[in-house]
Structure formats: structure tokens, C-alpha cells
Input
Amino acid sequence: MEQEEYELVPMNPIRRLEKKMERMEKSSAGGEMVKELIDVVRTNQQIVDDIVKINSDMIGRVSSLSTSVQQMTEKLNEFMGRLEVVGSAPPEAAAQSAEINDETARRLERLEKRINSLVLSSAAKRRPAPGSMMPMRRMPPAQPSF
Output
């Protein structure tokens, strides 16, 4: 279904134009030229009406687009505000974060020392004591066989 649009337009000029067209049609009963001219005028008026409808539709679309852009701008501003809140931590939080980092660094150092001592003690257990090694025998040089 096509929806018809109505506009408030002064009717006097239109009525005068219609009366002139009727007089022209009556005065030249056999004039094909006048009928073609009137047909062209009607076609022209139809084109003007279509343009007015398209213009009204475009105005509606632009206004809805304007509303959408405004909503998007508000959402973007809200998002940027949230980013600023998250990015700017209070000084207490920064000090607390530094304390946590220091504590973590100390724990890592202790763990590193423990691991190093475990590695050294396990290496010492694997290696025999210096006096407990058996002397190695020397093999006589191999004699060439011809």
C-alpha cells in the first residue's frame, strides 16, 4: 500500500490553471498539439509531486540519521569517560600497587635462593667425594696389526 501525502497549498492558482486547461481543450476540439501540451504539463506535475515525496522522505531519513549520530556520540563520550576513570587510579591505589610489587619481588628472591640451594645440594650428592674416587687404569697403547 502506498501512503499518500497531503500538503497545505493555496488552491486559487491551481483552480485558475484547471479552468484555463478546460477552456483550451474546449476551444480546440481537434487540436492534437494542445492535448499533447496538456499531457506534458500533467506529466511534469507528476514528476514535481514525486520529487516532493522523495524530498520529504529524505528529510525524514536525515533527521533519523541525526538522532542516531547523536546517540552514538553520547555512547562514545560515556565510553571515553569510563576509560578516563579506569586510567586515572588514585594515589593510594598506586602506593598499594607498589607495595604489592615489592612484596612479590621479595618472595621471588627467596624462591630463587631456595631453588639455587636445592640445585647445589642435589649436585653435591651426585658428585662423589674427592677421596672416594677410584684411580683410572691406563690402557696399554694398541699395537698395530698387519
User: Anything to note?
Assistant: The first helix runs from residue 12 to 27. The mean pLDDT is 78.
